[in-house]
Amino acid sequence: MIPASVGFQCPECVREGAATVRTVRHTSSGLRGAVARWGAVPLALIAANVAMFLGTAVSAGLAGSAPLDNYRSPVFTALAQVPLLVELGEPWRLLTAAFLHIGLVHLALNMLALLVFGSELERQLGRWRFLALYLVSALGGSTVIQLFGEPLRPVAGASTAIYGLLGALGVLMVVRRQDIRGILVLLAINVFISFLPGVSLLGHLGGLVTGAAVAGVLVLTRRRSTLQWAGLAGIAIVLLTLALTVPTAVVL
Q1: What's the CATH superfamily of 28-245?
Q2: Which position among 59, 142, 159, 200 bears the catalytic label?
Q3: Rounded distance, CA 85 to CA 72, Å?
Q4: What is the pLDDT of residues 85-134, one digit of tens each?
Q5: Which of 9, 90, 209, 246 is exposed most, by the fewest CB atoms within 10 A?
Q6: Could you state, in order of their start, the residue ranges of all structural domains in the chain?
Q7: Is 204 designated active site?
Q8: Rounded to 5 degrees, what angle do the CA atoms 3, 4, 5 make?
Q9: Which parts pass through the membrane (predicted)?
Q10: How far apart are CA 171 and CA 132, in angstroms?
Q11: Where are the alpha helices (DSSP H) in 101-249?
Q12: 192: which residues sit within 8 A by CB, 6+ positions away?
């Protein structure tokens, strides 16, 4: 007999009881857990950016350059934003440039910011509204570069969209009357960094203002999904019209 919590049990009963115990299986895989924690859209955007970086690195290697000098690749050259080339009939550069990065450090910093701020905003806005915010913010930064940037200077990076996320998060925090001192300090630091050589201040400010505007539209039209999407489409159309019809600024 085998001692039990109450009395004794025979060995056969114990074996039969053990056979009927079901093994608990974890139904959520590692990927599902990551999606639940960080959001599907931020992870998909990070995957797209990483894939683009790998593609430009391989392209650079095939072209005879070091893979980490990915900005020397033909793929990077064909997709980066060059205002004059956009004006001459290559509009895809307005968005494709937001998926390019110059080196691993540039990629890592932007993807970390996307993971942190993107996961929070997706929870607040939903997947599709967050994706629209990201893409329209990237377009806003590209439009400002197109209007006021150097015509022949290549520009690339997800920073335009990342600053849009910061602008949107700031608006949402103000609406909810949350403490915004932390995000203001973060914005001040990032704006300061934007003045460093090689960093696009125009793209950052354009993305920041556009993201704040998108969040404002979403807040003002909440509970009216049709108006929200109409407002987002209107902002995108205005930006595209400005970027594709206004001549590129001539910088002496």
Answers
A1: Rhomboid-like (1.20.1540.10)
A2: 159
A3: 17
A4: 999 999 999 999 999 999 999 999 999 999 999 999 999 999 999 999 99
A5: 246
A6: 28-245
A7: yes
A8: 135
A9: 40-63, 94-118, 130-149, 155-175, 182-199, 205-222, 229-250
A10: 16
A11: 103-125, 127-148, 159-175, 181-194, 201-220, 225-245
A12: none
